[in-house]
Structures are given as C-alpha cells and as structure tokens.
Amino acid sequence: MTSSPHLLASNHISWLDIHVINAFKPVRFVAKSEVRGWPVFGWMAEQLGTVFIRRDSARHARQVVDQIAEVLKAESVCIFPEGTSSSGESVLPFKPNLFESAILANAPVLPIAIVYRKRSTGLKSDAPAFIGDMGLLESMSNVISNRDIEVQLHLMEPYLTDEVKSSDRKELAIYCQESITKTI
Q1: CA distance 131 to 139
Q2: What is the pTM of this model?
Q3: Residue-wise over 53-71: b if at least 16 C-beta within 10 A, else e?
Q4: Residue 2 domain-assigned (yes or no)
Q5: Residues 163-180 pLDDT 10s
Q6: Contact indicator for 78, 28 with CB cutoff of 8 Å
Q7: Which domain holds residue 93?
C-alpha cells in the first residue's frame, strides 16, 4: 500500500464498511448528504471529516470533486463509487465522477474489496447488507444477531500517480470495478 495520500475505491455493502476501512486505515469518506442527519452515525461522520455530497446536484458534485482533490493533497479519502450499497454478491457499475479528484490531485487510486463471510462455513454472509428500503435499526439488528460474521479486506494493486496523469476518470472507475469484481 502506498504511504502517500491516495483515493480508496471500495465496493459498498453496509454502514459497517466505514468502520472496517477506518479500523484498517483511518481515512476521510465521501457520503450522501442524508447521512449527516442520521442519529449517531451522522455525528460520527462529521467527526471523521466526511465530505458530504448532494447526489441530486451536478454542480454540487463538481464542488465535491474539487474538495476531495484538495483533501488528497494531505489525507487519503475513501469513496464508494457504486453510489449505493448492495448485497455483496456482485459489484454494481462504478460511477466515474469522483475519480476525477485523483486525477486533479495526482493521487494514486487503491481499489479495496470488502467481503463479509460466515466464520463457520467461509461462505458469503448477507447479514451486514444494508439494502433496499431496509431501515438502519433493522440492519443493526441483523448484524448484532449474527455472531458468525467475519470481514475480509482485499487490497488490489494501486493505479499509480504517473498512470493517473494519462488516465481519465472512466478508465479509473473501470480499473477499480474490474479489480474488485475479480476478487469478490
């Protein structure tokens, strides 16, 4: 893993993902603006220096790209480019917009795959999945009632800075999505 600030791009399954990644390497995150209003989690996101994005505004998205590029000069940032969480069985298409920040900051991009498994069998577990119209309390209850969950983080080869200079955001998104898909 690179020691310079970098952009982490991860698949997204659960609110747990943030805690898992932060336990591995403290970073700043990008989250939908609605998270700011969530009880406890909104406060925690604020404390972590989360960059909030209004997903319904292209203009705001451009401002967020510039903000992330500025942060990447000194700190690493993690994005969830699927734009939503999934069951973890597959990887949803990556939205390329936020990858522009790595190009602007000339920062390496590190794909990171998260896989939740049943400790007893090694099979994938969907207990942590926070999907559809599931409420946060329901999701938390699913996690708490399943004592057989383990998480695996898989770090892929970073897309290095000198490669980023000649890349575009779509190329970066495809590289990360394909790397993670092969791993899970």
Answers
A1: 9
A2: 0.89
A3: beeeeeeebeebbebbbeb
A4: no
A5: 555 678 999 999 999 999
A6: yes
A7: 7-183
